[in-house]
Amino acid sequence: MGNYRDPEVLQAELKHVLGASPLVLAPSAALHGEGAYLTRQLPDGRSVIVSRGEDGVARVLVNTCRHRGARVAEGSGCARRFTCAYHGWSYDSTGALAGQPGRPGFDDVQASDLGLAELPSEESFGFVWLVPAGSPGVTAHLGSFAEPLASYDYASFQANPAMEVELSANWKCLLEAFFETYHFPFVHSTSMVGKGSIANIVSYDAFGAHARLGVPGVQMQGLPDDASPADIHMSVLYYVYPNLIIANTVLGCELIEARPAGSPGRSVLRHTFLSKVDPELVAAHTNEEYLQAIRAVIRDEDGPAITSSGGGISDAAHDFALLGRNEPGCQHIHRQIRSALA
């Protein structure tokens, strides 16, 4: 249980797992147009701004005024300037210093040296990624997983506002909950997830550190042996190492990100729904209905189950958590993290 409870393990994960690999920070679709931005908290606690500049380039900027360190942005939206409420310094959408009240008091410092600090990033495969110094680029990080990820063309989807839920559980507990279907009959028996899927049976494929699960839909029950490909109804789940699950369905995809929240027993689940921009397939009201329904499942069904698991792990007298052969996705996640820590 130490890998769930030990503060030293969490610090090692922050350095060698979450801090050493490219991380998805935002879907490209959430940064539609010049000046679009959103704020994010990194696993290590730092606040950043993901901003699309007037030049069309997406950047990851540290959300810290270069004067006295106050935040310059909150939430998300579209803005030509990020302005510090403390002393009024402002920055443009690329992070350059654009306004400096009381400039004569700082005339011995070049304004060009006072822009928001920028972190290495890359926009590819429909996402903006943080790329820590020394880590491989995104394509190298994905390896053979790049091809299936690219096939979805996520940049063409429509982004909906994100939801964050803080939970009393280790961040890996969140990943486990969304990369197996063993729990569906017990946690989701009355909701759309449980009713729409055949539980506790999945296909499993590994792509280096990443993995894919195929989850059959109830429409596949009783199919004849000679059923056509059109009769196969499956949801496809991707694990993008180290902390992202992508659930692909006919309506679009869900991004489920797990990150620590300051201690081994606290974490944040961030959920973003990307809907397909296809009016013949999905009506606007269906998007909203689906979004609210799936978030109720995550908040009111998965959330309590994950919290219960987290609390039990904190109290447990035994030294290990048990993963069955019917949970290959969870086993894969732990193997990759252990390998990085080794």
Automatic annotation (TrEMBL):
The record's section on Pfam families has:
Rieske, Ring_hydroxyl_A
Q: Give GO MF terms, alphabetically.
A: dioxygenase activity
What cofactors are annotated for this protein? Answer: Fe cation
What keywords were assigned to this record?
Answer: 2Fe-2S, Dioxygenase, Iron, Iron-sulfur, Metal-binding, Oxidoreductase
Q: Which residues form the Rieske domain?
A: 22-130
Spell out the CDD domains in the cross-references: Rieske_RO_Alpha_N
Q: Tell me the InterPro entries matching this sequence.
A: Rieske_2Fe-2S, Rieske_2Fe-2S_sf, Ring_hydroxy_dOase_asu_C_dom, Rng_hydr_dOase-A
UniProt keyword Cytoplasm, yes or no: no
The record, for PANTHER family, names: CHOLINE MONOOXYGENASE, CHLOROPLASTIC
What this protein is called in its record is Aromatic ring-hydroxylating dioxygenase subunit alpha
Gene source species: Frankia umida
